[in-house]
Amino acid sequence: MSRIGVFVCHCGLNIAKTIRVSELAEFASTLPDVVVARDYRFMCSTPGQEMIANDIKEHRLDRVIVTACSPLMHEHTFRKVIEKAGLNQYMLTIVNIREQVSWVTSDIEEGTAKAKALLNGAVYRARLLAPLSSRVIDVNSGVMIVGGGIAGIQAALELANTGKKVYLVEKNSTIGGHMAQFDKTFPTLDCSACILTPKMDAVLQHPNITLMTYCEISEVKGFVGNFDIKVRQKARYVNHDKCNACLACTEKCPGKGISEWDEGLVKRKAIHIPFPQAVPQKPVIDRDACTYFLKGKCRLCEKVCEQKAIDFEQQDTFIDVKVGAVIVATGYNLMDTSPLVQYGYGKYPGVYSALEAERLFNSAGPTSGKVTLRDGKEPQAIAILHCIGSRDKNNYEHCSRVCCMYSLKFAHLFKEKTSADVYQFYIDIRAAGKGYEEFYNRIIEEDVKFIRGKVARVAESSDEPGRLIVEAEDTITGKFVQLPVDMVVLSPAMIPREDSKEVGRLFNLSTDKHGFFMERHPKLAPLSTMSEGIFIAGTCQSPKDIPDTVAQANGAAAEALTIVSREKMELEATTAMVNPASCCGCQNCVRVCPYGAPLFNYEKGVSEINEALCKGCGLCASVCPTSAIIARHFTNEQVLAEIEGLMEF
Amino acid sequence: MSQAVTPYLEMSQAIIEAGGEALKKCYQCGTCSGTCPWTPITNFNIRKLVRYGQLGFDGIEDFMWGCSTCKFCVDRCPRGVELIDIVTAIRNVYSGGGMLPQSLRSFVGSLAARGNPWSGDPAKRNDWAKEKYPLYKKEMEYLFWTCCTICYDPRNTRLARATAELLNQAALSWGIPSIDVNCCGESVRKVGDLELFERLKNTNLNYFQANSVAKMITVSPHCLVTFKKEYGEDYNIVHFSELLASLIKEGKLKPKKDFGGIKVTYHDPCYLGRHSGIYDAPRDVIKSLPGVELVEMKRNREQSMCCGGGGGGLWMEKLKGERLSDLRVEEALATGANVLATACPYCITMFEDSIRTLNVDDKIVVKDVTELLLESLEINIDEPVGDMCEIV
Fold first, then answer.
1. Are A372 and A417 in contact (CB under 8 A)?
2. In the prediction, which pLDDT does B4 show?
3. Is the per-residue pLDDT at B303 higher than 60?
4. Strand ranges of the sheet holding B292-295, from the earlier edge strand across to the other edge
5. Residue A247 pLDDT greater than 90, yes or no
6. Contact A473 B28 (CB under 8 A)
7. How confident is the model at residue A231 (pLDDT cuts 50, 70, 90)?
8. Structural domains for chain A
């Protein structure tokens, strides 16, 4: 015979609007073993919490049911309340009548009926609950950061400065990310390299940071506090321990590959560093461009290398890293706009993507910072096209957030570096950020022409070969504009990395429909994910600018620190266990577990569950044919009782 | 004149209720108006039309007839706005009370009184067939849906005969509908007369049900789209160009005659291309013809330009300089083609008008792909005198 208290929350009107809360409490008082039932406006408030604590004492309650919001919101709150009042925290049951009932109906009859059914089930289950004790584990104090753009760099430095060990993993041969491709940053027009390269160098020099470039994640095991991560070091064909970064090899190399750093605008050597300030300043060989790998002859780099660092036999290797927390900061891509045939990207040489334009401004870029077209001429008229693939249901519905501002920056740089007329074709100018509206005003005064209308077509000029005609309606006057230009710059949608779904799978992160990583809560947990101990920062979560990215990186570093600054941490006790006497050895559990928690003990012929890995999801228990697996807190008896309670309605 | 206006939201609500729900989605970016083939040559502005509709502004009726429902704007719209639904709804709301333009009145009147837009006698609907071709019976495989334009329009009856002959050549089991049917109602629906459309639709549905029609062939892409999308039934319906392409592929029709190296350019009808996604079948038919070189116009396939005949445009007067078909014929001439091929009776009519008024009938002729194939099979359907297609 148990003694249950039921506490029905109104959540203001959130619940009380579509559920008759007092009727629900009255109903609760008629249920078996319920000795007290009350309703209250805000159960999570201090008086609400005190009411529960007092009732536990006064009525000698041994179980508490709170019918309120999702357990994601206040399970922790109420567990602490009943624990303080002397009960085991697992004697609490939350019935979610807000997200699952009141917010999804406008019918008070149906809402009240469904809430009663859920509560009835909860009472049946609560009667069978048993106290559980939490597990305490050791926490590894290291943090892995995946992605060496500005977000990863910032987070790495912050964490390393607190004395924690940081592993910064980058798939390219240098860190720096997209920010290293830019010439200037809006709205201050700071030189991008001038503010970024000191941080890149600080990463390289920092005693607490292990920089792992040209590396990819191949396997992630473990759980918060104790991740075991296998990193694949891609073969560089250059022994970086021996290389002294003299770069003589890159001068002699005859191989030609596509320069990723210059967005394919020029070629680079097969053995190369991506750009002059690359970190580390040591080369790698691009197999697909290397004469020796392609034709079996050459090895010029080997001949000129005094350090004997070239190693054509080098293979990929795997490195195991143990950390307590992970920050994923894998960044973005720009959408490939060539399928949008109306804009002519990839067809007309005068059409550029935004990142290609960035490289034209950059003094380390393909034109040494001179704005010239592919034929070497300076453009006389330039059109910048906003919202290409963004804010577009046929492609990406989201606003890419940064394009308005970098388009304004482009206009300024075009004005500064050429005598061209510059036109912006836009739908809305979104300049919401510190100093952004002021920057917009400045660009207007620089006599940039703004045409409000999304461009419908870019076509070849029939009168002047090589020139382009940009067609759009100026929606302010209603006139159809046909503008001859020499250069068109597209501002394409910012989208997740092509491998974001794969990275998401490795780290057990969910992604939205386009592949951006999902945060745990859009407002209150923007850097956390549904995987404990894994955090996200920067543009892998959604399009954002550098200031927001850096702020997120700092935040993610602080979040990671809340885990790795502890020596030990408490884990949920709701894990599964095997009763060896009934285990038939079928290994269904081993096959279904997404966390690798069950292992088959061949000596004993039974499965065993590593509780450190178990998340208590119950999959194994549901597939166990002999009911040998018991999911603690969700035992077969408890779940069946709850179903019985639900079925009574 | 005062510039002050007040939004008249009741009017906007009426448009929404008439099927223009998509009004709400538009953010006025101008993609539609920039894409619209009419924007460069007329005062019609599809974006403004939507804007006037959103706020119920007066004056909308002045330019609501400009759209030919070519669907280019719908395909490009970043908000997924169904602009044709909006146009139809606006016309429906405003076209009562004598708002119908003069040139559309005889067309709508004929549809209401005679069930076809050509003022044709309903009893003579099948006169083109001269009793040479069978009426559809239940045991037949295909109903060859003879649209009003190929039954009554003298130029296009040739297309009806060409189709019938090819169906016989391929030895298919087929028949034409009796005179109990009427217009599919496509154009009148786009002109906004939804009640009349329903009436026409029900007459045809009664015939289809009474005769257990399961499979249909159309030559008009307008009928094709209407049966597929507006009749609410799941008919197995093909456009004749699709059927021809597969019959050729299967070897059931074998083009013979060598055309001796003529250049043919193909115009994608809006209702076959953008509305139905059929781009390759008619091209495959042309490519199968010996001695024919298929040349493309600058704007083709998904980006094809409208002839101006859709959405009631076929019946509307347009000033010189405001005709899309003129521009399209010029584009066709620029390819050096001798034949402007297409697969829609409306396009044929529009282009033949333009060729006459542009005075280029010695340079280019208009043919349906069906007619080209028939010619290649060396079947003559023309009376001995006055074959307008022998110029090539």
1. no
2. 84
3. yes
4. B292-295, B262-266, B339-342, B365-368
5. yes
6. no
7. very high
8. 4-134 (3.40.50), 143-234+316-331+497-563 (3.50.50.60), 248-304 (no CATH), 333-495 (3.50.50.60), 575-631 (3.30.70.20)
Per-residue pLDDT averaged across A516-524, rounded? 94
Q: What is the pLDDT of residues A143-179, one digit of tens each?
A: 999 999 999 999 999 999 999 999 999 999 999 999 9
User: Looking at chain B from residue 298 to 337, which residues have their Cβ under 8 Å from any Cβ of chain A?
Assistant: 302-303
Q: Partners of A151 in the beta sheet?
A: none
Question: What's the CA angle centered on A255, arms A253 and A256, to 5 degrees?
Answer: 125
Which amino acid is it at A21? V
**Segments in chain B forming alpha helices (H):** 9-15, 31-35, 46-55, 72-76, 83-94, 102-114, 148-152, 154-169, 186-190, 194-210, 221-229, 240-249, 280-287, 324-334, 345-357, 369-376
Does the structure show a pLDDT above 90 at A390? yes
If DSSP codes are grouped into helix, strand and coil, which group holds residue A361? helix
The pLDDT, as a whole number, for residue B386 is 46
CB interface of B with A, residues 47-106, below 8 Å: 47-48, 76-80
Structure tokens at B177: 């509908």
Q: State the best of B25, B28, B31, B83 to mutate against chain A, taking most chain A CBs within 10 Å.
A: B31
Residue reference for tokens 């600018």: A545
Peptide bond into B117 cis (omega under 30): no
Provide long-range contacts, Cβ within 8 A and 24+ apart, for B167-172.
B167/B142, B167/B217, B169/B253, B169/B377, B169/B379, B170/B247, B170/B252, B170/B253, B171/B252, B172/B141, B172/B142
pLDDT of residue B388 exceeding 60: no
C-alpha distance from B14 to closest chain A C-alpha (Å)? 25
The pLDDT of B174-189, averaged and rounded, is 96
Which of A452, A454, A478 lies closest to B31 in CB terms? A454
Confidence of residue B5 (pLDDT cuts 50, 70, 90): confident
For the segment(s) B254-376, the CATH number from 3.30.70, 3.40.50, 3.30.300, 3.30.870 is 3.40.50
Class of the domain covering B9-94: mainly alpha
C-alpha separations of A617 from A311, A631, A634, B342, B355 in Å: 48, 8, 9, 62, 74
CATH 3.40.50 assigned to B102-245: yes
- Taking alpha carbons only, the member of B169, B147, B348 closest to residue B237 is B147
Q: What is the mean pLDDT of chain B?
A: 93
Question: Could you give the residue range(s) of every CATH 3.40.50 domain in chain B?
Answer: 102-245, 254-376
Domain with CATH 1.10.1060.10 in chain B: 9-94
Question: In which order are the strands placed within the sheet that holds A534-536?
Answer: A209-212, A166-169, A143-146, A325-328, A534-536
